[in-house]
Amino acid sequence: MLFCLADCKSDGPGKRVTTVTGQVLDEAQQPVDSVPVLLVSAGLVRPGVILAKTYTDIKGTYEIIVDVPKEFKYTDVGISSSGIKDFPSKYKDYVPYQNGVAQGTCCGVEVGSKTSYNFVLLFK
């Protein structure tokens, strides 16, 4: 009985609201607008389901706030390079920064948390 109470409490109303904010810049530290930013499901159960999508504004900033459905235990955030104008001709890759720290791997977001991911686009 205690297990159910603990589990139910962790998944109660508002407990799964996940917030991700950040900015997309190029290597010259210039903001990049209109970049698609996605929050997707991760893990073994139905990975890659798009839970939310937004675009960076003229300052390169974005914000995603989503109440993640109970069926998803893990999420990732990322940018869609295919949605960035001139990406193949101008950029070769990007580096993610979580809360200001460069990440070797990308980009887990704990369900129910608030976190920040910035992306720096690398010139060719």
Task: Explain this structure.
With 124 residues, this protein is mainly β. It has one domain (16-123): Sandwich (Immunoglobulin-like), CATH 2.60.40.1120. The protein contains two helices and nine strands. β6 (91-98) and β7 (101-102) form a beta hairpin. The longest helix has 9 residues, at 2-10. It starts with a helix and ends with a strand.
Shape, principal axes of CA atoms: globular
- In the CATH hierarchy, what is the superfamily? Carboxypeptidase-like, regulatory domain
Could you tell me the strand content as a percent range? over 45%
Terminal-residue CA separation: 58 Å
Number of strands: 9
Structural class designation: mainly beta
Helices and strands, in N-to-C order? HEEEEEHEEEE
What is the CATH C-level name?
Mainly Beta
Helical amount = 10-25%
Main pleated-sheet profile: 5 strands, mixed
CATH topology: Immunoglobulin-like
Order of strands in the sheet with most strands: 4-1-9-6-7
- Which residues form runs of ≥5 with pLDDT under 50? 1-9
* Number of helices, where a helix is a run of at least 4 consecutive DSSP H or I residues: 2
Radius of gyration: 16 Å
In total, the number of domains comes to 1
The whole-number mean of residue pLDDT values reads 88
- Annotated CATH architecture: Sandwich
